[in-house]
Amino acid sequence: MSEPVIQHWERVMHKNVRSSDRIDVGNIISEAGDNFTIMQGAKREYNVPKSCVEGFNGSEVFLNIPYSELTKYKVQ
Question: What pTM did the predictor assign?
Answer without folding.
Answer: 0.90
